[in-house]
Design brief:
By secondary structure, this protein is of the alpha/beta class. It has 15 helices and 15 strands. It has a 7-stranded parallel β-sheet, sandwiched between helices. Strands 8-13-12-9-11-10 form a 6-stranded parallel β-sheet, with helices on both faces. Helix 5 links the parallel strand 3 and strand 4. Helix 2 (26-36) runs parallel beside helix 3 (51-65) and helix 3 (51-65) packs across helix 4. The longest helix has 15 residues, at 51-65. The chain is elongated, with a radius of gyration of 22 Å.
Length: 446
């Protein structure tokens, strides 16, 4: 099947072809006709499946098919795309620009962590498509610098992550400012009870698409576990990078402090690395991501939420330095490799403290991951689990840590902590396996 056969214009197909794509992925083949039909859509798609083009291409087609009347001489915002993080917002808006390069449509992106005045100026000029993080969009709404009364299409991208981050109240405030008659598209990697509840309240008789088994891991990714003592994780990681000549490695830590510390340790080993998390300035995050993408940076160390929006073709290696608190995050993490049909490798360094987390992950993905002990790094069979310490204090960092509307890590402005379905397990003196949102990676320091 070709893109033109899906009902896309010659201008859009030309832009897509220039990016090297000749045939649609399964999510695109199903989502594009559904969106063009004009109805609501609930789509389940893992990262790396081509979902961004799955909604940006038909969005551009619909907007270009009928030009609206100008409002006070300016183009009204006709499409609104909400994303959980800055990086993902920037990536989505870039896709809108790339695929719409031969169309007379305009777009911009707004998020926190940067000055608001240049954004106000861009919004005044009028745009067709606005990509935004929820908090920064609320800032503009409160200042009266954005007009959402003419939005025809609303897209919630990675809706599961937005709920996990405590953005539900912000989303509801945005929904209240939109016209009642509009097309709604909801994309989510997982279909939790919270997502189903949001879909029920938002979508009207939606088409449903699910291109992969719920919470499945991409089959082209080779996964393995290296059992190791907690204090040997850093030496083992350095050994793996050097002995295997890994040149581009994305490493996940549970906390921001852990990310910073690991970068310092790797530097002493002669391995170039940078950290990307919510406490880093937007310019530092952009620079780290740019250098990692172009290959000049060997290791990028990230917390879970900061990694949303990292879309790198042919990324060969993902390492779980710490297992995530929430099992679903394992699927998101390893989905950074094995993208667009390429193969990839996901390695997890697991100490005795994380055995319950590993059990939860294996239960979720319905498979046991192969264990491989690395010579010289054999774990102590008598080691006893210790609590996984997180900094004391209530509430997540959220937008208070870094300016409103950015890549919040934790709860948003007093939102109730979200807990996953099922009772919390006790592990090492505190809840583990399925904790509430403030315990999510990056939300608290060590």
């Amino acid at each position: 099947m070709s893109f033109s056969a899906l009902g896309l214009s010659d201008e859009i197909v030309r832009a897509v072809t220039e990016q090297g794509y000749t045939s649609p992925t399964p999510i695109q083949a199903q989502a594009i006709p559904a969106v063009l039909a004009g109805g609501d859509l609930l789509a389940g798609a893992q990262t790396g499946t081509g979902k961004t083009a799955g909604f940006t291409l038909p969005l551009l087609q619909r907007l270009s098919a009928a030009a609206p009347a100008k409002i006070n001489g300016h183009t009204p915002i006709r499409a609104l795309i909400l994303t959980p993080t800055r990086e993902l917002a920037a990536q989505v808006e870039e896709s809108v620009r790339i695929y719409g390069k031969y169309l007379k449509l305009t777009s911009t992106v707004i998020f926190g962590g940067v000055g608001i005045n240049p954004q106000i100026k861009l919004l005044k000029n009028g745009i067709d498509t606005l990509v935004a993080t929820p908090g920064r969009l609320l800032d503009h709404m409160q200042q009266g610098t954005v007009d959402l009364r003419h939005v025809e299409i609303l897209i919630l991208d990675e809706a599961d992550r937005m709920l996990d981050m405590g953005f539900i109240r912000d989303i509801k405030k945005v929904l209240a400012a939109l016209p009642k008659k509009r097309q709604n598209l909801l994309f989510s990697a997982t279909f939790s009870d919270d997502i189903k509840a949001l879909a029920d309240s938002l979508l009207n008789a939606p088409a449903m698409i699910e291109v992969a088994r719920r919470n499945s891991t991409v089959e082209v990714i080779a996964q393995k576990i290296h059992p190791v003592d907690r204090d040997k994780k850093h030496p083992l990681l350095a050994h793996l990078i050097k002995s295997n000549n890994w040149s581009q490695v994305l490493v996940f830590t549970r906390t921001k402090h852990g990310a910073n510390k690991l970068v310092e340790q790797l530097e002493k080993d002669g391995i170039s690395g940078m950290a990307i998390h919510g406490n880093k300035s937007q310019s530092a995050r952009t620079r780290a991501l740019s250098e990692f993408k172009d290959g000049s940076l060997q290791v990028l160390v990230a917390t879970d939420i900061a990694a949303r929006g990292i879309d790198i073709d042919q990324l060969p290696h993902v390492v779980n330095y710490d297992l995530p608190n929430v099992p679903e995050d394992y699927v998101h993490r390893i989905g950074r490799t094995g993208r667009a049909g390429a193969t990839g490798e996901a390695v997890s360094l697991v100490c005795v403290d994380e055995k319950d987390m590993l059990k939860d992950i294996e239960k979720l993905i319905k498979r046991e991951l192969p264990r491989e002990v690395v010579a010289g790094f054999e774990p102590d069979p008598n080691a006893r689990p210790q609590p996984i310490q997180l900094r004391s204090g209530g509430g997540g960092g959220g937008r208070n840590q870094q300016g409103r509307g950015g890549q919040g890590q934790g709860q948003s402005r007093g939102a109730a902590p979200r807990t996953s379905a099922g009772p919390a397990k006790t592990f090492g003196g505190g809840p583990a396996g399925r904790p509430s949102a403030p315990r999510r990676s990056g939300g608290r320091g060590r």
